[in-house]
Each structure stands twice: as structure tokens, then as C-alpha cells.
């Protein structure tokens, strides 16, 4: 007997609602076949079967709220053989459609599935196909690239053969368990397999196009309480299922329209002359760019964001770096940069002002006895923030190695979801692009972000004399709901002191 439990739901998510059961007690299930769908306040999570067998008991019914690792159901192992017959009996039409596609292949076929997308990610968009139907592919050769709202994922071929069918074209949004394509081990059958497969899959849109889909229980409850017609709500779940967030959006839409009619009226784009229009290019925003835009705007709307500024004399840091950079590279195999100094200085300051390293959770303030440092990195597809975990326990060399490794993975689009989650504070270096001063936007749910800028020689009054010093402006954006002005200024002053006299870091002063 195997227990089906609630999987990890994502950062700061502790419970979910059982939205839909796709199976009932007594049904035969295969390995990785979807059993049910959970709904949190952020995402929808599908729960697959870890084993083949029979669903013997459902413990958590639809509509129930369950915590992480709660028992959902139990599956009796060893009864997987009758699975095909069980599926053919209730759905003879579907079985009839599948048979020609299988026989037309003329050999073994392999399904290309969506790979694991990461914690809390339930769907992706097919951005690029590197192969077309009829192409021969080798095992592990890249077939296509998927794009989630956080990272890009390459899909390698699970076997050598011929690509006989593409089920998800470029631009299609697919869920985490979707089939992308079909491979055949016999190249000669490719031409016959592709048309047959296309015909077999053609009725699928019609089947899913109907609204004969059960909405999420929580969504039905909200719509019933608010008197909203479900037919007027556009669902974002599987097959158009209305989810909790869809219902909430529908309830808030009338109020927003009534209180702010002006923005709705100004939403359409300004008129453009035909001559200008012919020279414009319209490109759909990537999912990553859409997510960046949404999260930055949410940060502005949610946090009481404020920015305080200071400047730091980089003379001592630059002198120390120049003195030891060759020896550092020889011993540790990595270059000594400025980011390790700033990371160590921020860790030092966060110990004195812990609220900058905290976050708000409802009516609670969560103080973190660790520093998971986010280092913002620009990539060809947008801004990402890989996280260096336990940076407070690392030395200069370990920090530089981690920054170099994660920076390279970010530029190559190889970062995993886990590598971008859990940060407690962020450093953003706009100086590499020549920025002299800016106000960084918080990376929610964090309460602080430090903005670094360009190092520029400026005349400074020191000891009654005007001298030229390499200066950098620093900016700390913080959530004023939990960080007072005194704490923010103290944090920035401590960073300044540590950088202007790096020996303070060694003495913990």
C-alpha cells in the first residue's frame, strides 16, 4: 500500500485545497498518472501516482483544505495490468482513435514529455522547436525549448529515432504532465505515422473546447457568494476550469472599474499613423518578462517602499583588491571581485539590523537567522536573481566561486527553480551598465535590496583638502512597514564603514 501525500507547495505556502479528483476508488492507475489537483493561493499543483496499482481509498475529498505532507489517498500496488481494459471500457471512442495512430507507426514509439519544471511551476510555453516532423534525432539531442515564468528549459530527446509528431506547437502553453511529441524508432514509418497521428489528435481541441468541466470548489463557493455567473468567468485551469484566483479576479473587477474608470478609458494605445505603423514591430512578451513586470508592480503595490542613499569611498577596497588579486587567483582559482566585499559588508550589517533580513507573513514578522543572498543578474531574456545560500557562513573565495558559477548558469538559462528561491536579501549591481544612481525595487517577499552603482572619481573634502577619490553611490530600498528609517540608515552606514575600512570585517566591528 502506497500513501499519496501533499507535495511541497512552494515557498511560504503551507496548505492547499483539493480541487478535483481525476480518479475514484477502485480505478486502476499507472505510474505518474494524475490523481488529483490541488489549489493554493498562488498556483495549481497536480499530484501524480508514484506507483502503478489501484486507488483503494480517498482520504481528502474535493473542497477540503490540507497541509503539506497530509495524506490524500492510498494506492494498492500490483494491480496495474488491467489498466488498459479499465480505460477502454468507459471510453471506446478514445480507444478507437488511439489504435490507428499506434499501428501506423510501424514500430516502437517514444513519448516526449514535459520535463520537471521545478517547485510551484505548473505550466510552460513552447518557445522554440529545433527539429521538425520527419527529422532524425539522436538520443539527448535537443528537441525544443520551453519557457516558464522564471527559467528556460531545454527538452532533450529521450531516445534515438525520427520525430513523427509534434503535439505542442510553438507558442502553446502546456502543463507539467503534457506530451510534447512522439518519436519513432523506425525512420521508414515516419511519413505514414505523422499524418495518422495528426488525424488522431485532431478531435482533441473539440473535446476540450466544451465547458463540461467541473470548476474548483473554492471558486464555486466564491462565485455563489458574490452572485457571479460562472459562464462569464474565464478559467485559467486545465480545460478552462475556473480556479480560485479567477473567481477572486472576477469579484474585484467590478469594484476596480467603478472606482477607477479613467485608466480603463486610457488603456487603448494612442493612434499611430499608417506610416509609423509600417515601421513598427510587435513582439509578444516572453513569460519571463511578463512575470518580471507583474512581480515588480506587485512589489510597488504591496510594500511601503522607501529608498535611502549614501556614498562610499572605494579607495581601501580597490587597494586591497589590487594587492591580493593575483595571489587570490593563484590559490583559489577565481578572480577577486567587488561583489564578495559587498556581500560580506551586507552580512555584517544585517546582523546589527535583522529587520532588513526579515519578511512579513500576514500579521507576523519572520526574522531569519541566516542570510540567503540574492545576486541580481541580467541575462538575454531578462533579470533573474540566483540565491547564494548561507552566505553568512562563507568566505571571500566561496562567495566569488558561487557568484561566478551561478552567473554563468543564469546567462546560459540553466538555473533551476530551487536556485532562485528562498532569498532573504538582494544585491543589484547597476554599476556594471554605467548607472550612477537608481532606486532598486524590492524583490518580494524580501524587505531590503541594496543597489550598487558606477565607481566614479569625484573631488572630496578630506582633512580640509580637496582630493580625488573613487566614489560609489549606494541605495537601500526597504519595506517601511517593518524597517524604520533609523534601521535603514544604520544598515547603509555599516555597509559604508565596512567598505571604507575592510579590516572592520575581520574584527567584526
From TrEMBL:
<dbReference type="InterPro" id="IPR023213">
    <property type="entry name" value="CAT-like_dom_sf"/>
</dbReference>
<comment type="function">
    <text>E2 component of the 2-oxoglutarate dehydrogenase (OGDH) complex which catalyzes the second step in the conversion of 2-oxoglutarate to succinyl-CoA and CO(2).</text>
</comment>
<feature type="compositionally biased region" description="Low complexity">
    <location>
        <begin position="250"/>
        <end position="275"/>
    </location>
</feature>
<feature type="domain" description="Lipoyl-binding">
    <location>
        <begin position="1"/>
        <end position="76"/>
    </location>
</feature>
<dbReference type="GO" id="GO:0045252">
    <property type="term" value="C:oxoglutarate dehydrogenase complex"/>
</dbReference>
<dbReference type="GO" id="GO:0033512">
    <property type="term" value="P:L-lysine catabolic process to acetyl-CoA via saccharopine"/>
</dbReference>
<keyword id="KW-0808">Transferase</keyword>
<feature type="region of interest" description="Disordered">
    <location>
        <begin position="196"/>
        <end position="215"/>
    </location>
</feature>
<feature type="region of interest" description="Disordered">
    <location>
        <begin position="248"/>
        <end position="282"/>
    </location>
</feature>
<keyword id="KW-0012">Acyltransferase</keyword>
<dbReference type="InterPro" id="IPR004167">
    <property type="entry name" value="PSBD"/>
</dbReference>
<feature type="compositionally biased region" description="Low complexity">
    <location>
        <begin position="196"/>
        <end position="210"/>
    </location>
</feature>
<dbReference type="GO" id="GO:0005829">
    <property type="term" value="C:cytosol"/>
</dbReference>
<feature type="domain" description="Peripheral subunit-binding (PSBD)">
    <location>
        <begin position="214"/>
        <end position="251"/>
    </location>
</feature>
<dbReference type="GO" id="GO:0004149">
    <property type="term" value="F:dihydrolipoyllysine-residue succinyltransferase activity"/>
</dbReference>
<dbReference type="GO" id="GO:0006099">
    <property type="term" value="P:tricarboxylic acid cycle"/>
</dbReference>
<dbReference type="InterPro" id="IPR006255">
    <property type="entry name" value="SucB"/>
</dbReference>
<feature type="region of interest" description="Disordered">
    <location>
        <begin position="79"/>
        <end position="112"/>
    </location>
</feature>
<dbReference type="InterPro" id="IPR036625">
    <property type="entry name" value="E3-bd_dom_sf"/>
</dbReference>
<dbReference type="Pfam" id="PF02817">
    <property type="entry name" value="E3_binding"/>
</dbReference>
<dbReference type="Pfam" id="PF00364">
    <property type="entry name" value="Biotin_lipoyl"/>
</dbReference>
<comment type="subunit">
    <text>Forms a 24-polypeptide structural core with octahedral symmetry. Part of the 2-oxoglutarate dehydrogenase (OGDH) complex composed of E1 (2-oxoglutarate dehydrogenase), E2 (dihydrolipoamide succinyltransferase) and E3 (dihydrolipoamide dehydrogenase); the complex contains multiple copies of the three enzymatic components (E1, E2 and E3).</text>
</comment>
<comment type="similarity">
    <text>Belongs to the 2-oxoacid dehydrogenase family.</text>
</comment>
<dbReference type="InterPro" id="IPR011053">
    <property type="entry name" value="Single_hybrid_motif"/>
</dbReference>
<dbReference type="InterPro" id="IPR000089">
    <property type="entry name" value="Biotin_lipoyl"/>
</dbReference>
<keyword id="KW-0816">Tricarboxylic acid cycle</keyword>
<dbReference type="Pfam" id="PF00198">
    <property type="entry name" value="2-oxoacid_dh"/>
</dbReference>
<dbReference type="InterPro" id="IPR001078">
    <property type="entry name" value="2-oxoacid_DH_actylTfrase"/>
</dbReference>
<dbReference type="InterPro" id="IPR050537">
    <property type="entry name" value="2-oxoacid_dehydrogenase"/>
</dbReference>
<feature type="compositionally biased region" description="Low complexity">
    <location>
        <begin position="92"/>
        <end position="105"/>
    </location>
</feature>
<protein>
    <recommendedName>
        <fullName>Dihydrolipoyllysine-residue succinyltransferase component of 2-oxoglutarate dehydrogenase complex</fullName>
        <ecNumber>2.3.1.61</ecNumber>
    </recommendedName>
</protein>
<keyword id="KW-0450">Lipoyl</keyword>
<comment type="pathway">
    <text>Amino-acid degradation; L-lysine degradation via saccharopine pathway; glutaryl-CoA from L-lysine: step 6/6.</text>
</comment>
<feature type="domain" description="Lipoyl-binding">
    <location>
        <begin position="109"/>
        <end position="184"/>
    </location>
</feature>
Amino acid at each position: 500500500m502506497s500513501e499519496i501525500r501533499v507535495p511541497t507547495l512552494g515557498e511560504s505556502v503551507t496548505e492547499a485545497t483539493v480541487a478535483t479528483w481525476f480518479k475514484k476508488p477502485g480505478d486502476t492507475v499507472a505510474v505518474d498518472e494524475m490523481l488529483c489537483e490541488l489549489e493554493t493561493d498562488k498556483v495549481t499543483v497536480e499530484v501524480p501516482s508514484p506507483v502503478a496499482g489501484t486507488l483503494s481509498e480517498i482520504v481528502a475529498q474535493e473542497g477540503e483544505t490540507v497541509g503539506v505532507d497530509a495524506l490524500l489517498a492510498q494506492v494498492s500496488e500490483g494491480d496495474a495490468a488491467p489498466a488498459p481494459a479499465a480505460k477502454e471500457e468507459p471510453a471506446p471512442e478514445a480507444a478507437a482513435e488511439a489504435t490507428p495512430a499506434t499501428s501506423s507507426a510501424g514500430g516502437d514509439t517514444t513519448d516526449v514529455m514535459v520535463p520537471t519544471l521545478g517547485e510551484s511551476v505548473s505550466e510552460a510555453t513552447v518557445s522554440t522547436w529545433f527539429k521538425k516532423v520527419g527529422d532524425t534525432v539522436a538520443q539527448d539531442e535537443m528537441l525544443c525549448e520551453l519557457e516558464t515564468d522564471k527559467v528556460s528549459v531545454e527538452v532533450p530527446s529521450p531516445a534515438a529515432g525520427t520525430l513523427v509528431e509534434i503535439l505542442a506547437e510553438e507558442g502553446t502553453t502546456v502543463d507539467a504532465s503534457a506530451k510534447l511529441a512522439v518519436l519513432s524508432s523506425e525512420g521508414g514509418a515516419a511519413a505514414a505515422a505523422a499524418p495518422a497521428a495528426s488525424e488522431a489528435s485532431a478531435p482533441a481541441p473539440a473535446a476540450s473546447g466544451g465547458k463540461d468541466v467541473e470548476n474548483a470548489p473554492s471558486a464555486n463557493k466564491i462565485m455563489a457568494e458574490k452572485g457571479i455567473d460562472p459562464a462569464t468567468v474565464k478559467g485559467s485551469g486545465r480545460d478552462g476550469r475556473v480556479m480560485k484566483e479567477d473567481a477572486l479576479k472576477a469579484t474585484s473587477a467590478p469594484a476596480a472599474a467603478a472606482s477607477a474608470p479613467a485608466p480603463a478609458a486610457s488603456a487603448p494605445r494612442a493612434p499611430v499613423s499608417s506610416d509609423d505603423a509600417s515601421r513598427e514591430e510587435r513582439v509578444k512578451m516572453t513569460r519571463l518578462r511578463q512575470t518580471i513586470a507583474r512581480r515588480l508592480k506587485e512589489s510597488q503595490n504591496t510594500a511601503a517602499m522607501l529608498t535611502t542613499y549614501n556614498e562610499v569611498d572605494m579607495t581601501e577596497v580597490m587597494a586591497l583588491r589590487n594587492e591580493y588579486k593575483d595571489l587570490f587567483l593563484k590559490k583559489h582559482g577565481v578572480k577577486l571581485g567587488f561583489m564578495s566585499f559587498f556581500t560580506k559588508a551586507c552580512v555584517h550589517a544585517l546582523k546589527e539590523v535583522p529587520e532588513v533580513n526579515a519578511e512579513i507573513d500576514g500579521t507576523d514578522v519572520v526574522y531569519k537567522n541566516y542570510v540567503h543572498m540574492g545576486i541580481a543578474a541580467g541575462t538575454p531574456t531578462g533579470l533573474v536573481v540566483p540565491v547564494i545560500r548561507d552566505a553568512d557562513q562563507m568566505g571571500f573565495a566561496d562567495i566569488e566561486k558561487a557568484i561566478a558559477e551561478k552567473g554563468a548558469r543564469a546567462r546560459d538559462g540553466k538555473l533551476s527553480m530551487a536556485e532562485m528561491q528562498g532569498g532573504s536579501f538582494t544585491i543589484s549591481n547597476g554599476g556594471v551598465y554605467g548607472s550612477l544612481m537608481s532606486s532598486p525595487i524590492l524583490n518580494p517577499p524580501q524587505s531590503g535590496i541594496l543597489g550598487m552603482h558606477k565607481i566614479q572619481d569625484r573631488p572630496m573634502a578630506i582633512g580640509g583638502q580637496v582630493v580625488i577619490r573613487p566614489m560609489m553611490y549606494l541605495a537601500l530600498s526597504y519595506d517601511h512597514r517593518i524597517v524604520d528609517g533609523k534601521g535603514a540608515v544604520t544598515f547603509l552606514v555599516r555597509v559604508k564603514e565596512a567598505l571604507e575600512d575592510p579590516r572592520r570585517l575581520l574584527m567584526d566591528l
